[in-house]
Amino acid sequence: MVYRDMVSKEAWEEKNNVVVADLDRILHRFTLVMICRCGFGMPVEWTQGIDHSELVTFDRELSVAARTIILRFILPDRVWKLPIQSLCSIMQSWKNVLSLMTSIAARRQAELSLEKHFGDGNIADLLTKLVSATDGANKYALEPAEVTANMMSLLFAGNETTSSALLSTITLLALHPDEQEKAYQEILREAPCKEGLSLSTSARLRRVRPCL
């Protein structure tokens, strides 16, 4: 799970009390890793790697693009053509993200074509689900460009919106420690084990679910 990975890599397990000075950064990374895993089927780790594998490159370039999304959309095209190293690096990251996303989608399409009996039950991420909808036999089939556009929207709108929502929720819980304690006690009572949440367990978290 992403949460356990985060706690372990941030070395919080060994501490009784933790002060998180840069919560915004933590939540942006948390949501980005979640989107990579659930949206793209890419098992990105909490700590970014340093090699040049496709997974690490995807994570690295995606992180740059996610951090610069506002600049990318508010600055006119002519600005991005200026010979400024920082702008050129950002633009190259965006190009790399699009290129990687296109190649990953093409590979998933090839895999689906080989597995003729590939059913919805075997599809574990949104990208593969969208790729499966590019079947030309269906009049509502998506074009490859539409798959890429949908995934880009999920990535950037989803990352920013989700991280902001989590930040607001945590802030409100901090301002209302009594409600925070009630939610915490409910988790201890209804989900005491470390195996993770199930759908049945989640349904019993009546105070926690509105927070999420």
UniProtKB/TrEMBL annotation:
One of its GO terms (cellular component) is membrane. It comes from the Eukaryota. Keywords: Heme, Iron, Membrane, Metal-binding, Monooxygenase, Oxidoreductase, Transmembrane, Transmembrane helix. It holds the Pfam family p450. InterPro entries: Cyt_P450, Cyt_P450_sf, Cytochrome_P450_monoxygenase. It is found in: Membrane. Its cofactor is heme. GO terms for molecular function: heme binding; iron ion binding; monooxygenase activity; oxidoreductase activity, acting on paired donors, with incorporation or reduction of molecular oxygen. Pathway: Secondary metabolite biosynthesis; terpenoid biosynthesis. Belongs to the cytochrome P450 family. PANTHER family: CYTOCHROME P450 (PTHR24305), CYTOCHROME P450 12A4, MITOCHONDRIAL-RELATED (PTHR24305:SF166). This is Cytochrome P450. It comes from Armillaria gallica.
